[in-house]
From TrEMBL:
Belongs to the LysR transcriptional regulatory family. It comes from the Bacteria. PANTHER family: HTH-TYPE TRANSCRIPTIONAL REGULATOR, HTH-TYPE TRANSCRIPTIONAL REGULATOR CYSL. Residues 291-311 have a biased composition (Low complexity). It comes from Actinomadura fulvescens. Residues 1-58 form the HTH lysR-type domain. Keywords: DNA-binding, Transcription, Transcription regulation. This is LysR family transcriptional regulator. Residues 291-321 are annotated as: Disordered. InterPro entries: LysR_HTH_N, LysR_subst-bd, WH-like_DNA-bd_sf, WH_DNA-bd_sf.
Amino acid sequence: MTESRLRSFLALAETGSVRAAAQRLYVTESAVSSAITALARDLGVPLVQRVGRGVALTPAGTVYAGYARQVLGLLEQGRAAARGEADPARGTLRLAAVTTAADQILPELLAGFRDRWPDVELTLEVGPSRRLWRRLADHDADLVLGGRPPAGVPSRVLATRPNDLVIVAAPALAATFSLDTTPWVMREPGSGTRATAEAYLAEHAGEPPQLMLGSNGAVIAGAAAGLGAALVSRDAINDELAAGRLAIIDAPDTPLDRPWHATTAPTPTATTRLFVAHLLDAPGWRAATPAATPAAASPAAALAAAQTRAASEPAPGPAVR
């Protein structure tokens, strides 16, 4: 049950085609087929079945795919941890961020981190919160910048930053705002902001017309164009407010306090701790727990500490939900 077989199986599961899986992995189609056949033989159950001209996972294959993702993610996390422990400044860091965080708070943070630690191998995935928390649970991400981690995801919050969600609209629409009749522009399903907006409307018995737009930028632009009201991060609309294209609505129980969270696996790698140290040097961020406090030291001190394995390092705290 080799790593290459698992990668072939997941590529097939995600593409639904032997040919597409082979193209993704830069191998032959026969190599993919052989890997799937060998994996099914080892497990003793069929993992895929023919559907038309393509293939689909069997129920057993669907269940096994979830475990395969975690196994491969854990192997990658182990490699990152080993490299980072040997030299945090030359380790790997897999960041994931929700769209608003990626747009508003990450660019400056990443630029500063690159200046200080140019040899860190850095990757970034931006997407809806539901997908990113799945990445963390599957060990496919080292740190997620987003809202509070959901229950059931093994995690550790190391830092937080204030973030207010406000309801906005074009000034003319804001002047006549009604929870029942004013249309709302909403994020896509899977977005944490959309879930918060839906919960807010349900709590206040609001049932307005809704228009779904596909990104945070589209929602802000749609609200500014007069398509409807929107629940957005205050950090994301400074330019629109200054230019008078949007106005904040004095709606009941707003603004909503939804801090940004820097969330890692229960045992973050040394290179991840290096990024958290840098993050805690930035305005507005603070350590979330006593266990995270040592990371608030200067980056140089954090690097020195990370390079020496400390036998007395406190055990990871419980998941913060």
